[in-house]
């Protein structure tokens, strides 16, 4: 089963990551975020570095699979980890990008932030979004991208446990959000990138309010540069802007939290293929996994170059 041709199930993803760690131990290590999910699973992450014992470099964090049904995001995180670990120092376009990315930063990648939800979406209910908390005996699930401490409880989140945007009892009440928040704080983090689907957007802060951060123009310039790189491969156009301007206001999102509370200046959210008008929605055909991986990886390289030049 090739992760660039097919969507792996949760066991397939876990096997892929342990094999990667076993085969490239000099550059990649797998670890778990230190809390178990409601169904008792671990949340796996990988660190990729030129020197796992301490490179002294700043960290870039990438989070995928927060929303269970967004399968393409998991493929993209797996590809990013695979390319960084295996292609470093090699020849060819992707290898040169991987080398540059690792020479600038340490990379922390969480391919499946919501493993309980992903397993449920994969095997039981393809369009499941939330985690699998049993809220009240009737409805399951907290929307992890409404559970962060970024205007928690505000516009664009729901207090109704049956809603797909149910925010949960309190900010960081869920093991998935609490674990990722703690882990990000243990590293010297320069950038945080949330990967979602779909609509082909690169979203800038803030998602929870219409006013812009003071460094908005810098973030906009960087995101536009990454977008141009992405678009250059297959003419896949992404819209760059804030959620209130191009999508909707949503409080309690991860990337807002990371900038607001953890002081991470460079904080972005992708919405990958397909485009907003597509009838595929969250079910991107498997023959688009490979081009999506290629264009997104290239844009992550551009993000790294631009952030390094600006920071
Ligand atoms: O609604 C979301 O969480 C994201 N869209 S999705 O279709 N993948 O569910 C957008 C999140 C943007 N971030 C914030 N508004 N905080
Ligand atoms: Zn999402």
Search tags:
single chain, 38% helix, eight-stranded mixed beta sheet, 17% strand, binds N~2~-sulfamoyl-L-arginine, Aminopeptidase, binds zinc ion
Q: What would CATH call the architecture? A: 3-Layer(aba) Sandwich
Bin the helical content: 25-40%
- Our count of helices gives 9
Q: What is the H/E string?
A: HEEEHHEHHEEHEHHEH
Number of domains: 1
Low-confidence stretches: none
CATH class: Alpha Beta
Q: Structural class from helices and strands? A: alpha/beta
Q: Strand order, biggest sheet?
A: 1-2-4-3-5-8-6-7
The gross shape turns out to be globular
Q: How many strand segments? A: 8
Distance between the termini: 40 Å
Radius of gyration: 18 Å
Ligand kinds: N~2~-sulfamoyl-L-arginine, zinc ion
Strand content bin: 15-25%
The pLDDT mean sits at 98
Largest sheet: 8 strands, mixed
The CATH topology name reads Aminopeptidase
Assign the CATH superfamily. Answer: Zn peptidases
Brief synopsis:
The chain is an alpha/beta fold and 311 residues long.
What would you note in describing this structure?
The protein has 311 residues and is of the alpha/beta class. The protein has a single domain, classed as Aminopeptidase (3-Layer(aba) Sandwich), CATH 3.40.630.10. Helices cover 38% and strands 17% of the residues. The chain has helices spanning 10-23, 71-87, 93-104, 115-123, 175-185, 216-234, 243-246, 254-262, 289-310; strands at residues 28-36, 42-48, 59-63, 106-110, 189-199, 201-203, 239-241, 266-275. It has an eight-stranded mixed beta sheet, with helices on both faces. Strand 6 (201-203), helix 6 and strand 7 (239-241) form a beta-alpha-beta unit. Helix 2 crosses helix 9 (289-310), helix 3 packs parallel to helix 9 and helix 6 runs antiparallel to helix 9 (289-310). The longest helix is centred in the last third of the chain and has 22 residues, at 289-310. Bound molecules: N~2~-sulfamoyl-L-arginine and zinc ion.
């Amino acid at each position: 089963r090739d992760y660039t041709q097919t969507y792996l199930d949760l066991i397939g993803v876990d096997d892929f990551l342990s094999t990667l760690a076993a085969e490239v131990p000099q550059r990649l290590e797998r670890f778990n975020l230190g809390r178990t999910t409601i169904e008792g699973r671990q949340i796996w992450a990988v660190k990729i570095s030129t020197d796992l014992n301490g490179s002294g470099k700043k960290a870039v964090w990438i989070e995928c699979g927060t929303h269970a049904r967004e399968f393409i995001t998991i493929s993209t995180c797996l590809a990013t980890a695979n390319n960084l670990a295996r292609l470093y120092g090699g020849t060819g376009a992707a290898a040169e990008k991987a080398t540059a990315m690792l020479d600038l930063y340490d990379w922390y990648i969480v391919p499946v932030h919501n493993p309980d939800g992903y397993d449920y979406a994969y095997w039981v209910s393809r369009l499941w979004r939330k985690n699998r908390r049993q809220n009240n005996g009737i409805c399951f699930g907290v929307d992890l991208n409404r559970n962060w401490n970024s205007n928690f409880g505000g516009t664009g989140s729901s207090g109704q446990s049956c809603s797909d945007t149910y925010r949960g009892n309190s900010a960081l009440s869920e093991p998935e959000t609490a674990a990722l928040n703690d882990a990000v704080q243990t590293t010297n983090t320069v950038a945080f990138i949330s990967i979602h689907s779909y609509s082909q957007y690169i979203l800038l802060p803030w998602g929870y309010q219409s006013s812009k951060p003071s460094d908005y123009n810098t973030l906009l310039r960087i995101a536009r540069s990454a977008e141009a790189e992405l678009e250059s491969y297959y003419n896949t156009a992404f819209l760059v802007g804030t959620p209130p301007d191009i999508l909707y206001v949503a409080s309690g999102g991860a990337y807002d939290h990371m900038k607001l509370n953890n002081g991470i200046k460079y904080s972005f959210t992708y919405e990958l293929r397909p485009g907003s008008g597509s009838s595929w929605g969250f079910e991107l055909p498997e023959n688009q996994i490979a081009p999506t991986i290629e264009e997104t990886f290239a844009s992550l390289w551009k993000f790294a170059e631009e952030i390094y030049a600006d920071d």
